[in-house]
Amino acid sequence: MSIILKTTDLTKKYGNKVVVDNLNISIEKGEVFGLLGPNGAGKSTTMNMITGIVKPTLGGVEFMGEDFMKKRKSLMDKLGYIPQELAIHENLKAWENVELFTSLYGIKGSKLKQRIDESLEYVGLLDRRNDFAKTFSGGMKRRLNIACAIGHHPDLLVFDEPTVGIDPQSRNFILDKIKESNRKGATIIYTSHYMEEVEALCTKIAIMDNGKVIATGTSEELKKMVKDDISDITLEEVFLTMTGKKLRDY
Ligand SMILES: Nc1ncnc2c1ncn2[C@@H]1O[C@H](COP(=O)(O)OP(=O)(O)O)[C@@H](O)[C@H]1O
Ligand SMILES: [Mg+2]
Asked: CA 186, CA 164: separation in Å to the nearest integer?
């Protein structure tokens, strides 16, 4: 398999605080790569650097074999980013939101119209295309946010905690859609502090804490790092053993 995205010593400092610390990860084409870590681990900052929103203090990102920082303009249309913070416009209709984002990639005319409806259908919002985003539930806004990021048919889709604070139905819908996108050929990066989601979805998992990746592997490989008999161990326990901390508060 070929590497689609690779970080080299990726580091972000805010003042004296090292938020992302010498991160070296490689994501293979076709993979669902999960970044699992508690709140404050540095997941969003990592995603923001990988997608060119935040400039690294040190280190770099190679995307599709090119230096992402140098070739960002020509590589942007291969990337779809669903950030943790919703990036939709409340006072625009659903279809206008998707139009706004999809047209940024130079898609126009009848192709643009077709992509808007295709994206809305994909997230189950085609019948609400003419409604204002402000009338949507949290789960629907999340789904609209996804529609805005896929209209240009990216090769790599980056999801930052897309299921936080939404109803179970929308959550399952989103997880199914991510699997479907992957089956159709997209490579996925998925961040979460929910180990069940990461375990169900991801083919490779990097465990992150305090700005550092502390272990990478399949769910099985990670469990074997802390225990020989993995039949009754969870990723939560793996995290606890490796860091001495709970992944999240219950
Ligand atoms: N713009 C910023 N300025 C200062 N500190 C920041 C900024 N963005 C994030 N941080 C800090 O960096 C750490 C990691 O944040 P973040 O990447 O959002 O973690 P996660 O997504 O894993 O919850 C946190 O301690 C956060 O407060
Ligand atoms: Mg985050």
From this structure: 22
Kindly give the distance from the C-alpha atom of residue 40 to the centroid of ligand 1, in angstroms, as a whole number: 6
Listed in sequence order, the residues at least 6 apart from 238 whose beta carbon sits closer than 8 Å to its beta carbon are 207, 215, 222, 223, 225, 226
Tokens of 241: 């053993």
Strand partners, 5: 27, 63
Query: Which residues are bridge partners to 96 per DSSP?
Result: none
Token pair, residue 68, equals: 């992402």
Give the span between the Cα atoms of 8 and 22, in whole angstroms.
7
CA of 96 to the centre of ligand 1 (A): 31
Nearest CA to ligand 1 atom 9: 45
Q: Strand 156-160 and strand 187-192: pairing? A: parallel
DSSP tag of 105: T
pLDDT digits (tens, 9 = 90+) for 86-145: 999 999 999 999 999 999 999 999 999 999 999 999 999 999 999 999 999 999 999 999
Per the DSSP assignment, residues forming a β-bridge with 13 are: 18
Q: Which of 161, 184, 203 is nearest to 42 (CA)?
A: 161
Residue type at position 96: E
Q: Ligand nearest 50 Cα, by number? A: 1
Mutate which of 10, 14, 50, 158 for ligand 1 pocket (most atoms within 8 A of beta carbon): 14
Which residues lie with the beta carbon below 6 Å from any ligand 1 atom? 14, 19, 37, 39-45
Q: What is the model's pTM?
A: 0.95
